[in-house]
Amino acid sequence: MTAITDPITLAGRPAPSRVMFGPHETNLGDGRSFSGRHAAYYARRAAGGAGLIVTETASVHASDWPYERAPLAAECGPGWAEVAAACRPHGALVVASLGHAGMQGSSAYSQSVLWAPSRVPDAGSRELPMEMEQPEIDALVEGFASAAALAVRCGADGADGADGADGLDGVEINAGQHSLLRQFHSRLTNLREDRYGEDKLALTEQVLRAVRERVGEDRVLGLRLCCDELAPWAGVTPDLAAEQAQRLAGLVDYLVVVRGSIYSVPATRPDLHTGPGFNAELCGRIRDAVGATAPVVLQGSVTDPDQAQHWLTGGVADLVEMTRAQLADPDLVAQCRGGQAHRVRPCMLCNQTCAVRDNRNPVVTCVVEPRSGHETQDPEVGGNDRVRHDVLIVGGGPAGMETARVLAQRGHRVELAERGPQLGGMLATAALVHGRERLGLTVEWWRQELLRLGVSVRLGHEVTAAGMDAALAEGRQVVLATGSVAGPREYEIAADAQVIEAAELVELVGSGLSEERRTGRAVVYDPVGGPVGVGVAELLAARGWAASLVTQDQIAGTQLAITGDLADANARLQRAGVVRETRSLLRAAAADHVVLEDRWTGERRTVDCAFVVHCGHRLPDEELYLHRPGTPRAGDCTAPRTVHEAVLEARRVALAVGAAGERPGVRGGLHTLTVAGGVR
Across residues 30-55, what is the average pLDDT? Predict the structure, then answer.
């Protein structure tokens, strides 16, 4: 039986495992070139056992500048060489992704016209591109060929090496999402009447042959191919893709099966509302079509090693792309190889910090592994501290659990006190929201890690101010992770109105909310525009309530654009029958109605309502902190935000507490801690 940890040979080059770390935007670049941060980022996954690493897609022609820090192949030689040198000691094959975004690019950076097969405006930007003529097509083919030659011959010193000994192992041509080549494949975007319109694979075939001629037979040539544009009226369908794959597979050393089009961009890498391995059936179909011509790679939210193994064993694919999974746990393959697959830190598929292609320009990272993307800046959290402490952690949410895990891992004696009946805090509550059950996997992972590390966990135990004082008097360290409390409600509430916090509502629904309340309409007020309001509205609708979602924005869940769930979320609300009251502010809540105000005109209207669910910002629970100002704290009790900030602050605090006895600052058991901003 083939295992994901088994080696595979591509173009005569051995890869140590069948797990790919696929191409994705990172914003780690130095201008439009690869940086030392890229090298450390990829090397960390190589050290963790990845068999094939595909670097961030580099544009093969200067006409393509899809996002600010998008690599440009002509400037990537030195960076590619540094990446190769960093990964080579670990045995991973490293190939460069090469592409051109075409009409899905951005003229904001290039300050020039977008290239496309035909004059079809992009569905996202609505910008009309130019129709490429033969000079542009010739330049594109040469761009791919020259970029591939540079990738495989780049020298360790950053120069174009003569013998190519230090170059990359090969290249992967992008004909998937955000790809000009895919746009040539599709009747959605290719309306040409010349040979590139009559034979829609002609350009891709020309590119592959030109690239092979430059890189030779001893270098890996891969192809990322869109096999379902999810637009059957004119796009590439699985049936058509099977024919295309058969034709192209003989020209490459492996084939990655992906999906998505200009009308379904998030479908290539959706969030947790789409189950893991969503491309398995499609991939198996393409693998059957190409037979043994070329190994096929399964892409599509593959996060769990056991599932990945199932798809390999079942003949769905020959390799598995586990990109987000290796952001969450860079040691995924090594853990599996060591018989510790159950310890792999689960990916939540939330897209909150790993989807970075937006106008904020964030650096790629992971909510549960915030060192990802920051490998050159921050120390590992492992190892042992020279001085051992007894530490009491108050609060069992993500911040409390991560603080306890890191401290215990570094050799300290740790007790975690949680006043509730279970660990997880707001993350456990969020996992009860409709469609977000996957969030609970991380809570269970933390629970198991605390058990393994011997952390004393006390549930149903509330630490009072007196208890905190007693712990400090005994010489114990105290860390506060007490979470949050309900925030302000900036609207009038009548005495007989029913208003409930989102967290309380979710927990009540989870335990069985009284049936009689279904007779009235629930109004979900969401001044934030994030996943909470949308999720609560979906939850209520799924349980049979009539629900309205009130938002000040023009569309529900505006912040979900960051995670790629905005369009899908509104479609789900529509199907569920949730009424969306957009560009509206809640001004008053009464027993049987609410008063809404149009954000732009100030016009007020009345909407029937049995109860209001408040989804606004929360405030830190500061009771214990104000009793002992300066006590180390992390997570929502500092400022309620996301899991990412909770985990990040927890690590910083844990490392600072662990080192507290090694430097001045101890006063009667209460440590004044300077938390380094770069520690993750």
Answer: 98
Q: Do domains 8-343 and 492-500+509-617 have the same CATH topology?
A: no
CATH topology of domain 390-485+622-671: Rossmann fold (3.40.50)
Give the separation between CA 228 and CA 275, rounded to whole angstroms: 17
518/611 Cα distance (integer angstroms): 10
DSSP three-state, residue 84 = helix
CATH homologous superfamily, domain 8-343: Aldolase class I (3.20.20.70)
- Give exposure, 523-551, as e/b (b: 16+ Cβ within 10 Å): bbbbbbbbbbbbbbbbbbbeeebbbbbbb
Where exactly are the structural domains of the chain? 8-343, 390-485+622-671, 492-500+509-617
Please name the fold of domain 492-500+509-617. FAD/NAD(P)-binding domain (3.50.50)
Which is nearest to 176 in space by CA: 325, 83, 299, 25? 299
Contact yes or no for 59/72 (Cβ under 8 A): yes
- Polymer length in residues for the chain: 680
Helix axes 398-409, 440-452, angle to 10 degrees: 30
Prediction pTM value: 0.94
Amino acid 150 reads: L
* Residue 163: closest CA among 152, 148, 171: 152
Answer yes or no: is pLDDT of 10 > 50.
yes
- What pLDDT, in 10s, does the model give residues 261-298? 999 998 999 999 999 999 999 999 999 999 999 999 99
